[in-house]
Amino acid sequence: MYAPDVLQASFRWLHIVAGILWIGHLYFFNFVNGPMAAVLDAETKKKVVPELMPRALFWFRWGAAFTWVTGVLLLALVFYHGALALEDQSQGWTGGALLMMLLTFAAPLFYELAQKCPITKPAEKPYGAAISGILLSTIFVALMYYVGGFSYRGMSIHLGAAFGTIMAFNVWFRIWPSQQKIITAVKNGEAPDAAIVKLAGTRSKHNTYMSVPLLWFMINAHTTFAAIHWITIPLFVLIGWHGVQHLYKKAAKVKGF
Q1: DSSP three-state, residue 150
Q2: pLDDT tens across 110-154, in order?
Q3: Measured over all CA atoms, what is the biggest interatomic distance in the chain, rounded to whole angstroms?
Q4: Cβ within 8 Å of residue 119, ≥6 positions away
Q5: How far apart are CA 92 and CA 84, in angstroms?
Q6: Most exposed among 179, 192, 209, 213, judged by the fewest C-beta atoms under 10 Å?
């Protein structure tokens, strides 16, 4: 029995379980809880929110943490240990490839800079956020190909890793701190700070949009049927985001009894 194979199988199992826990709660918040909470009066929210949200957010944030950690371990075992991320494995890890690896995990920094961009203003202009996201994704994939010398599978999984790192960052450093303040305000019968509510909602929405392409990249790392050209990778980001947009529209139409 080969030890790395045992570790790979174990980490994949934990990664999938933790991912279901995380993304399942993400979809619950965005497609179920959000529309439902909008019809509750203040007194009902005062009773429901302090009991529901801390419980849900516990599984949400720890699911995110374990998904990210096991994802990084899998990346190291599957794509780094055998240089599977590279188009020409005989060259080994060049400076360009190492740079792209570093940029993958520095993705939250570039994401935060994009949120402050005066041209797109993602929080106020959803289409501006989508355009900037597609543009940055395309640039990143092109750099992975031309600078990093990554294979199709390597490019796919690293864009997914970049999305996953941004999403985990949002959970722990934007959504969870904001929700702590929102829950406390609601429990005390006070109106939460509108800016904090907006921040939590925007980042949660961004995570929802990134989650669908991310799931595709996880699957696509194991198949190369779309490996026609590197441009197909950001194309699936666009397709995934279009699908999420329709899910939001449907969620707004689903009513209670």
Answers
A1: strand
A2: 999 988 877 655 555 667 778 889 999 999 999 999 999 999 999
A3: 65
A4: 128
A5: 10
A6: 192
> CB neighbours of 98 closer than 8 A, spacing ≥ 6?
none
Q: What angle do CA 59, 61, 66 make, to 5 degrees?
A: 90
Q: How far apart are CA 17 and CA 195, in angstroms?
A: 33
pTM of the predicted model as reported, rounded to 2 decimal places: 0.95
- Which residues constitute the domain of residue 239? 3-253
**Predicted confidence band of residue 204 (pLDDT cuts 50, 70, 90):** very high
Report how many domains make up the chain: 1
Which DSSP letter does residue 86 get? B
Q: C-alpha dihedral over 224, 230, 233, 238, to 10 degrees?
A: -140
Per-residue tokens: 69: 């950690």
Counting residues of the chain whose pLDDT is more than 90, the rounded percentage is: 81
**222 φ, ψ to 5°?**
-110, 5
Give the C-alpha separation, 150 to 30, whole Å.
Answer: 35
User: Closest Cα to residue 166, out of 211, 127, 232, 131?
Assistant: 211
Whole-number Å distance between alpha carbons of 18 and 4? 21
Mean pLDDT along residues 159-183: 98
- Enumerate the β-bridge partners of residue 86: 150
Structure token digits, residue 141: 């994939």
- Which pLDDT value is given to residue 37? 94
Structure tokens that stand for 193 in this block: 């700070």
pLDDT the model gives residue 118: 74
CB atoms within 10 A of CB 56: 15
Rounded CA-CA distance 110/112 in Å is: 5
